[in-house]
Amino acid sequence: MFDFITTWIAAGGAFAVAALMFLENVFPPIPSELVMPLAGYNAATGSSGPVLTFIGGVIGSVAGAWLWYEVGRRLGRERIMDWVDRHGRWLTLDRHSIEHALDWFDRHGAAAVFFGRMIPTVRTLISVPAGLQNMPLGRFLVYTTAGSVIWVGALFGAGYVLESQYERVQGWLNPVTNGIIAVIVLLYLWRVFRGKGRKRTG
């Protein structure tokens, strides 16, 4: 899997990284913690340009966040809750997750958007309440981009530095990568078939 992803990123360059990071924000089982370090490694080996690869990662991350912002802004609270009741299972979302994100946004505002970009799962959810509460788009994009630059940069930098040590880790990196993906997929399937996202009663 490591070889497959790095080859794909090398072939598609910044566009492939941007697409993967966009999907990571839309479809949670695709982890940026895996994509960006591998993109950084590829850039360090010369397979792709580091600056464009990093920018692609940031653009994809921000674009995915903006999509959820628009979903929240256009649908409104009641419609998005009804949508989550019907379809949230496949994104492992439920009313409680949205309400928790709304509460956090109400208490922290712009800081929630900024720091939320660096917290797994939250970085997908936090864009919804920003849209629901009609946070100005320009302000949302500024804080989202700032948080994404830090998060993407840290992961990209880790992979970039790893290149110099690749000979030491190449024997176990591929199976570890496969193991991470397997765990993520199994966790996702467990959450889906457990019924997370169905309307709570009581």
UniProtKB/TrEMBL annotation:
Keyword Transmembrane assigned: yes
Protein's name according to its UniProt entry: Alkaline phosphatase
Transmembrane segments: 7-27, 47-69, 140-160, 172-190
Membrane-protein topology: Multi-pass membrane protein
Superkingdom, natural source: Bacteria
PANTHER family attached to this UniProt entry: ALKALINE PHOSPHATASE LIKE PROTEIN, UNDECAPRENYL PHOSPHATE TRANSPORTER A
Cited InterPro entries: DedA_domain, VTT_dom
Taxonomic source organism: Limimaricola cinnabarinus
Segment forming the signal sequence: none
Pfam assignment, any one: VTT_dom
Domain VTT: 30-160
Keywords: Cell membrane, Membrane, Transmembrane, Transmembrane helix
Subcellular location: Cell membrane
Primary localisation category: membrane
GO cellular component: plasma membrane
Lineage: Bacteria, Pseudomonadati, Pseudomonadota, Alphaproteobacteria, Rhodobacterales
